[in-house]
């Protein structure tokens, strides 16, 4: 015997549904609450769902993609966001970061400084201990190994042993991972903070005073994290008999002119913030890793100046005996690199994309119209005031 099929009741959208916790709730209101409660990825999974019908009722069936509001996070429709959606995510994250209490920002920034130390130590200990002759004969190949992968055989002796045993040299499989850890684990780096906060400022989500506070505190706590990691790394003795390259780099980084270091700092954080942009575009772990690897490896291979990485590198070189003074470190590297990093993140990335996908063009147009309107009113007022005077001069006494 077949079981009778129970038909679902027909719900009139104009009628109220059964009373909930807060009284009668309409069907449209319940549907809106359901949409807000669902994860973003599931919100657009089924185009025939009631939620999609509700959106079509609100925006029209042929309205096309909804316009985004700068500063509001986008609903994730695919594994890669569009450029406009990336900018909206950056603005949203910048506004959220501005609400962090001081202890949260301090701990996350200290962790970011330590993560930079981990990444640079991997490059310096493993990739930086390739044969010295490679640096002289094949500088491009040496930079590729150091920046893109950061891994090679620790000593030439191991390579010779493998060749004698007729074993293949193990493949390169590592890449600069410090920025990957920072983005995935949620640590706060000064260089990416430049882009986050500037984008939020352009959209009027934060004040310039808040931006300055976030930049100063993140830079300071990054320095504290790097200093802690320098002390721990020195105590570990990991650089024992493996310090030739870090000393060379420490001396090299204070040998450039002030302007050259400034420009290298611009390029460095430009690429770092490109990695930040692309990592926000990717919605899965693999996509984020690839998005970070490309620009970060380019920045490391080209030898640009990253102020937070140098907060670890140069003090570590000084601790190991590099002939660099504290004045040289601060004046010739840290100050110009910090300023250049700010320009690269806040201007070259955040400001450019704010004027492409954000509200500054509309703000400028509104300001210009208001100025023209005010100027027109003033011109009319001047004409009204001067007209009686002219009439009095030309009229009868």
UniProtKB/TrEMBL annotation:
One of its GO terms (cellular component) is plasma membrane. InterPro entries: Aquaporin-like, For/NO2_transpt, For/NO2_transpt_CS. It is a multi-pass membrane protein. It holds the Pfam family Form_Nir_trans. Coiled coil: none annotated. It is found in: Membrane. Belongs to the FNT transporter (TC 1.A.16) family. This is Formate/nitrite transporter. The lineage of its organism: Eukaryota, Viridiplantae, Chlorophyta, core chlorophytes, Chlorophyceae.
């Amino acid at each position: 015997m077949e079981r009778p099929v129970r038909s679902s009741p027909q719900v009139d959208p104009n009628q109220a549904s059964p009373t909930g916790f807060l009284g009668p709730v309409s069907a449209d209101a319940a549907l809106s609450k359901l949409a807000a409660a669902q994860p973003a990825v599931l919100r657009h999974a089924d185009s025939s769902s009631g939620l999609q019908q509700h959106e079509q009722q609100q925006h029209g069936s042929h309205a096309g993609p909804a316009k985004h509001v700068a500063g509001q996070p986008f609903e994730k429709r695919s594994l890669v966001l569009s450029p406009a959606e990336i900018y909206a995510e950056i603005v949203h994250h910048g506004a959220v970061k501005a609400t962090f209490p001081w202890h949260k920002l301090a701990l996350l920034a200290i962790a970011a400084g330590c993560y930079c130390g981990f990444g640079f130590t991997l490059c310096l200990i493993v990739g930086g201990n390739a044969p010295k002759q490679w640096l002289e004969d094949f500088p491009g190949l040496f930079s590729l190994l150091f920046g893109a992968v950061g891994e090679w055989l620790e000593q030439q002796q191991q390579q010779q042993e493998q060749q004698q045993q007729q074993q293949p040299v193990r493949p390169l499989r590592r890449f600069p991972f410090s920025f990957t850890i920072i983005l995935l684990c949620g640590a706060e780096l000064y260089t990416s903070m430049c882009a986050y906060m500037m984008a939020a400022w352009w959209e009027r989500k934060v004040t310039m005073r808040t931006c300055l506070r976030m930049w100063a505190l993140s830079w300071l706590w990054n320095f504290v994290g790097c200093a802690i990691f320098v002390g721990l790394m020195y105590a570990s003795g990991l650089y024992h008999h493996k310090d030739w390259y870090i000393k060379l780099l420490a001396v090299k980084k204070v040998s450039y002119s002030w302007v050259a270091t400034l420009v290298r700092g611009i390029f460095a954080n430009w690429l770092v913030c490109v990695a930040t942009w692309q990592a926000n575009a990717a919605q899965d772990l693999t996509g984020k890793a690839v998005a970070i690897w490309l620009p970060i490896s380019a920045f490391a291979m080209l030898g640009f100046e990253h102020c937070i990485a140098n907060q670890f590198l140069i003090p570590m070189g000084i601790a190991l005996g590099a002939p660099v003074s504290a004045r040289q470190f601060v004046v010739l590297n840290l100050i110009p690199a910090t300023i250049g990093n700010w320009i690269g993140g806040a201007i070259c990335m955040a400001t450019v994309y704010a004027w492409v996908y954000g509200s500054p063009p509309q703000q400028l147009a509104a300001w210009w119209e208001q100025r023209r309107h005010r100027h027109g009113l003033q011109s009319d007022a001047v004409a009204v005031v001067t007209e009686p005077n002219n009439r009095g001069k030309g009229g009868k006494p």
